[in-house]
Structures are given as structure tokens and as C-alpha cells.
TrEMBL record:
InterPro entries, per the entry: CheB_C, Chemotax_prot-Glu_Me-esterase, Sig_transdc_resp-reg_Me-estase
Annotated organism of origin: Pendulispora brunnea
Name of the protein this chain belongs to: protein-glutamate methylesterase
Entry's EC annotation: 3.1.1.61
Catalytic activity: [protein]-L-glutamate 5-O-methyl ester + H2O = L-glutamyl-[protein] + methanol + H(+)
PROSITE patterns: CHEB
Entries under CDD domains matching the protein: CheB
Length: 319
């Protein structure tokens, strides 16, 4: 299972180009892409290496030596011996989501799963990696110092017990070796209630906010020090992703306020043009007030965006 985001195409091509033609495992890939993007990733992967690649189709039988790529705007999930492609709720703002692939693969195949997180922003993949490790699978991350965007591999390192940290040059040989070795033992006993809540199979503790996607009620569950929030319809978020989504929601609300105030100012001016006396003055004063308030909110939004951009630049310099 390979998950990637920013910089992922180059990283995937690098890894796949050196995988052997007789690899005794199927490879599943989730790359975050725009939902309307006409993805050519399977063709690129197939042309670069010796393995066949295609967009996964719902109901596909799993065949070793084949690369299954998540189609745009669809989750790639696994069942026992079968591929599932579903347009389910977004996870951490993504569809396809790395977490959905990792979680369902771990539930279906336990210690036979090798999860790999490559370059990418934020922390998508960490929750899924925790599921893989909890069910006896192997966890690998690209060396964050090499990654174009280090956040995804670094988050997994910070929160999960990772078995291998590897460069892109080291990954193909590592994958080949691990595939040739016997799988580990599945953890003894039943799946813990904490893991069931974490994976959304049981309801977690009620959270004190609503889902930024659908405004539904939200519950939270943790595994170790990593928390996942999930609404009743299935949207899920990590702390980082829900902070990002809530910030976007606030910005949308502020722009709606700007629009309403500017439209109000325009309407007040039109009313002033047809009124007389004190009523005309009242509408003029109202138009001026609405225009001033719209400018205040607009400046607040643009100032906030400029601050965020400066912070991103500073973070990049620090890295």
C-alpha cells in the first residue's frame, strides 16, 4: 500500500521503475489529485517500470504483480481477495484518501500488509498506518529529509511505530525483500475496542463541534496520541485536517458576509436614489456604513491570507 501527495508522482515513478517484474505482491497506490483531473498515472507507472498498472475497478480480483491506482474522486479500498472502489465520504478532506486504503487493507489482510507513506502535506496516512501496525503489518516511510513535502512521512514517524525509514533509492530493494519474507504473526486476541472506535466501526466520544463538511454530529477516538474525528455520515478528520477545514469554513463565511454587505450597500444606494428628505439621508448613511463594514471584513480576510502565506514561507525556510 503506497500513499503520497505533493511530489508523489516523481516519487512513485522512481520507486516503480526499479520493482521486479516477478514481484509476488499486488501494489495499491493512492495519490491525492484534483477530483476533475484526468489522471494518466497508471500509464506513466506502466511505461516507467515492468509491472502492469491500471485504475482500479470495483470488484477487480487482486492479482500479484499488478499496480492498482485509485481513480480520481473515489476511494480505493480492499476486501478479502477483491478491490472496492467507492465514492464514499471524504477523509481529511481527500477522496481518494490514503487512510481509507490502509485501514481496509489492514482489516482484510493484517500482517500481510506493507504500508508505505511517501512525500505529502499534513498527516493523511498516519491513522491508516496506525491501523496497519495494530494488526501486525509493516510500516515504511520515505526519509522526511529527502521528501519534497515532509509532513506526511514525518507525522507517521511521530505517531506510529515505523519499521523502516528509507530513501527512494532504497525502497525498491526493501519492498522486494519484505515481499519475499514470510508475513509476521497477527496480534493475539480480538480487535481492541479502542481500535474499533478509531477505525469508525464503533462510535467514539462526542466532540464539541460539528462536521465542517456536512454539519453533522462528530465523535472522536484516539489510538496512542493520535486522534481522529468522524461524523455520523462518515467524514473523518485528524486534528490538522479539521483545523484546516474549519479555517476554510470561517473564510467562506467571511466572504459571504462581504458579499451580503456589498449587496446591501448597493441596494441602499438605489433606495436613496428614489427617496427624498430624511429617508434619503438614512439610506445614504446606511450604504456608507455597509460599504465600510464590507471593507473591514475584506481587509481582515486578505490580511489573514497574507499572514498565512508569510508563515508558510517561514516554515519552508526553517525546513
Amino acid at each position: 500500500m503506497i500513499g503520497a501527495s505533493t511530489g508523489g508522482v516523481r516519487a512513485l515513478l522512481d520507486v516503480v521503475s526499479r520493482l521486479p517484474a516477478d514481484l509476488a505482491a499486488a501494489v495499491f497506490v493512492v495519490l491525492h489529485e484534483h477530483p476533475l483531473h484526468q489522471s494518466r498515472l497508471p500509464q506513466l507507472l506502466a511505461s516507467r517500470g515492468t509491472l502492469q498498472a491500471s485504475h482500479a475497478l470495483h470488484g477487480d480480483t487482486i492479482v500479484p504483480g499488478h499496480i492498482y491506482v485509485a481513480p480520481p474522486d473515489n476511494h480505493l479500498m480492499l476486501g478479502r481477495g477483491v478491490v472496492r472502489v467507492l465514492r464514499g465520504p471524504k477523509e481529511s478532506g481527500h477522496r481518494p484518501a490514503v487512510d481509507a486504503l490502509f485501514r481496509t487493507a489492514a482489516a482484510s489482510y493484517g500482517p500481510r500488509v506493507i504500508g508505505i507513506i511517501l512525500t505529502g502535506q499534513l498527516d493523511c496516512g498516519t491513522a491508516g498506518m496506525l491501523s496497519i501496525k495494530a494488526r501486525g503489518g509493516v510500516g515504511i516511510v520515505q526519509n522526511p529529509h529527502e521528501a519534497e513535502a515532509r509532513s506526511m512521512p514525518q507525522s507517521a514517524l511521530d505517531h506510529a511505530t515505523i519499521d523502516h525509514v528509507a530513501t527512494l533509492e532504497e525502497l525498491p530493494a526493501l519492498i522486494t525483500r519484505l515481499v519475499s519474507e514470510p508475513a509476521g504473526e497477527a496480534p493475539a486476541g480480538q480487535v481492541s475496542p479502542a481500535l474499533m472506535r478509531f477505525e469508525g466501526k464503533e462510535r467514539g466520544t462526542p466532540a464539541m463541534f460539528v462536521c465542517p463538511e456536512c454539519q453533522g454530529t462528530v465523535s472522536e477516538a484516539s489510538l496512542g496520541d493520535f486522534t481522529v474525528f468522524r461524523c455520523h455520515t462518515g467524514h473523518s478528520f485528524t486534528l490538522e485536517s479539521i483545523d484546516t477545514e474549519q479555517a476554510n469554513e470561517v473564510e467562506r463565511a467571511l466572504w459571504a458576509a462581504v458579499r451580503a454587505l456589498e449587496e446591501g450597500a448597493t441596494m441602499s444606494k438605489r433606495l436613496a436614489s428614489t427617496a427624498a428628505g430624511d429617508l434619503r439621508e438614512k439610506f445614504i448613511e446606511k450604504a456608507h456604513a455597509q460599504a465600510r463594514n464590507a471593507k473591514v471584513v475584506r481587509d481582515l480576510i486578505l490580511g489573514g491570507l497574507a499572514t498565512e502565506k508569510t508563515q508558510e514561507t517561514d516554515d519552508d525556510r526553517t525546513r
